[in-house]
């Protein structure tokens, strides 16, 4: 899984003066951003209707919603 990492700070371009070539948003830069977003989205598990197996939780975890299944937790069956 990958997380989205922004490549270009488009908001910083707003501070540049009109006519500054760095103020332009190039198609290649915009394309890179959309590619990064698409990669991050496609590498994530869908939240709805997802099936998970072999899940390992550690530390403090909070689960909410409708949960069902079978197996063991700390040696106890659920």
Which labels suit this protein?
1 helix; elongated; mainly alpha; two-stranded antiparallel sheet; 78 residues; 2 strands
Chain-wise SSE layout:
Blueprint: H1 27-42, E1 72-73, E2 76-77
Antiparallel strand pairs: 1-2
Describe this entry's structure for a reader.
The chain has 78 residues and is mainly α. It has a domain at 1-45. Helices cover 21% and strands 5% of the residues. It has one helix at 27-42, and strands at 72-73, 76-77. Strands 1-2 form a two-stranded antiparallel sheet. The longest helix has 16 residues, at 27-42. The chain is elongated and about 70 Å long. 0% of the residues are buried. The mean pLDDT is 81.
Low-confidence stretches: none
The helicity comes to 10-25%
Mean pLDDT across all residues, rounded?
81
Would you report the number of β strands?
A: 2
The value of Rg in angstroms is: 22 Å
SSE string: HEE
Summarize the structure.
The chain is mainly alpha-helical. It is built from 1 helix and 2 strands. Helices cover 21% and strands 5% of the residues.
């Amino acid at each position: 899984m990958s997380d989205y990492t922004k490549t270009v700070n488009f908001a910083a371009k707003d501070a540049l003066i009109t006519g500054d070539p760095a103020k332009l948003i190039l198609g290649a830069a915009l394309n890179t951003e959309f590619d990064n977003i698409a990669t991050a989205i496609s590498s994530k598990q869908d939240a709805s209707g997802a099936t998970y197996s072999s899940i390992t939780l550690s530390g403090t975890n909070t689960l909410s919603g409708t949960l069902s299944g079978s197996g063991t937790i700390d040696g106890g069956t659920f």
